[in-house]
């Protein structure tokens, strides 16, 4: 684990006045520990963000220089502005290099899964951090798992991770960290053909009528015309 130096100054602007520090390019912070009184401080915004943006992130081991004093600390907690995403406050925790601490380490995958590449599977990666316990000097920058040989249906748990010397995994051994799921198939609803009305059984179709049309109704025959009665001839 890398170790960096950060310069800090004791902060005079407390409470709501800490906004003044931010306007001047500083981040309000506090440093505390088991064997010391908390000290309100501030650190340079640009310098701190440049350091914290590296691979180690919040697990950086820091020599916090306050005047003539130098304290071994870690950035224990950040407050972030939800609108801008900028860090607006930091809690520094003083640590002992000889005492194990608990922290969370970034979990990442490497390689390309066979099931994803060849069979169109989906990589499900639900867990992004692993909680560990170890000496500050043994904190890993990150924990990786090579997924190259994983096929569809394969599932990886915390218990499948390779042990790291001097590091204890606190996250449950049964916790799922990777799954290769089968691709989802979109079901297409069958299109129903329009059905024309069907003639009643036994009813003959009219000649020339299109299939499926109702049969022509028979036209009633005209009644025969009555013949005019011929006048009878009388004998003279």
Written overview of the protein:
The chain has 3 helices and 13 strands. By secondary structure, it is mostly beta strands. The chain has 2 domains: about 5-95, Ribosomal Protein L25, Chain P (Beta Barrel); about 100-180, Beta Complex (RNA Polymerase Alpha Subunit, Chain A, domain 2), CATH 2.170.120. Strands 1-3-2-6-5-4 form a 6-stranded mixed beta barrel. The chain has a 4-stranded mixed β-sheet with strand order 10-7-9-12, with no helix packed on it. The longest helix is centred in the N-terminal third of the chain and has 8 residues, at about 45-50.
Q: Got a strand count?
A: 13
Order of helices and strands: EHEEHEEEEHEEEEEE
Report the C-alpha radius of gyration, rounded: 42 Å
Largest sheet: 6 strands, mixed, barrel
Question: Structural class of the helices, strands and pairings?
Answer: mainly beta
- Mean pLDDT reading: 81
Number of domains: 2
Protein name: Large ribosomal subunit protein bL25
GO molecular function: 5S rRNA binding; structural constituent of ribosome
Pfam families: Ribosomal_L25p (PF01386), Ribosomal_TL5_C (PF14693)
Subunit structure: Part of the 50S ribosomal subunit; part of the 5S rRNA/L5/L18/L25 subcomplex. Contacts the 5S rRNA. Binds to the 5S rRNA independently of L5 and L18.
């Amino acid at each position: 684990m890398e170790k960096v130096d950060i310069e800090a100054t004791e902060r005079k602007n407390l409470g709501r006045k800490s906004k003044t520090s931010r306007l001047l390019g500083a981040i309000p912070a506090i440093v505390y520990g088991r064997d010391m009184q908390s000290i309100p401080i501030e650190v340079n915004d640009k310098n701190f963000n440049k350091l914290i943006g590296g691979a180690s992130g919040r697990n950086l081991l820091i020599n916090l220089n306050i005047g003539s004093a130098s304290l071994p600390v870690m950035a224990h907690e950040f407050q972030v502005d939800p609108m801008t995403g900028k860090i607006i406050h930091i809690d520094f925790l003083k640590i002992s290099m000889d005492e194990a601490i608990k922290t969370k380490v970034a979990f990442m995958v490497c390689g390309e899964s066979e099931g994803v590449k060849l069979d169109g599977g989906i990589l499900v990666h639900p867990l992004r951090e692993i909680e560990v316990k170890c000496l500050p000097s043994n904190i890993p920058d990150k924990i990786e798992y090579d997924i190259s040989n994983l096929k569809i249906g394969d599932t990886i748990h915390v218990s499948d991770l390779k042990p790291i010397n001097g590091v204890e995994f606190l996250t449950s051994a049964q916790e799922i960290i990777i799954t290769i799921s089968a691709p989802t198939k979109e079901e297409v609803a069958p299109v129903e053909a329009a059905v024309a009305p069907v003639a009643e059984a036994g009813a003959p179709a009219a000649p020339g009528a299109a299939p499926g049309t109702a049969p022509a109704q028979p036209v009633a025959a005209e009644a025969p015309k009555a013949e005019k009665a011929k006048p009878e001839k009388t004998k003279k």
